[in-house]
Amino acid sequence: MPKKIILVISLALAAIFLLAACEKSASQPVLATPTAAGANATAQPLGLQVLNDLGTKTAVYVQTEVALGVFTPAATTDSSLATPTPQAALSTPGIATVVPLATVTPMTASTPVIVVASATPGRPGSYTLHAGEFPYCIARRFDVNPGDLMNLNGLSSGQILQPGKTLKIPATGSFPGTRALQVHPATYTVAVNDTFYSIACAFGDVDPSAIAAANGLAITAPLTTGTVLNIP
To answer: Are 141 and 204 within 8 A, CB to CB?
Structure first.
């Protein structure tokens, strides 16, 4: 066979195979070129990506529409992409938020309570002496006979008794004469070493607790020299 005929037949066969290859390539979708590990893939619509993950027939259909250029992705309803809800404005940095304090009722100064001893009622069965008191003073105060008081307690005239001594008080009798040594009500200026008990004895028939009460003081309150007291 002549070489020219063999060459023509070879060229014809090559042309036929080439045309068949072109038709076959055009009838099949173009496959994506694999990307290297770590490379970024082409971004796809969110809906398409979800369908690809599910691997459904619908995904194949959508891929075909994408390849043909006729696919229009629907609006996403993904809650993660929703417009964020405006939040309350934050406080300005560096400026402390002033929180109003609860109304506090101011405390008023309390008035000190004065414990005033009541006067010895009537005629007691016994009485304990304090500094500045003596038997005759007690006899005047409780309206008893001084002699009866001395005898009941075994005392002699002129005997000096110390504070803390308890005397028995006679249940009967009365003081002979005038019990008051000074006219009262009156005022009295406190002298050195004075107490409510000694001042009461100076007036004779006044109870020391009554003097303290008349001046708004406790019976144990110390007295300052020069203070003027009201004597009831």
So the answer is: yes
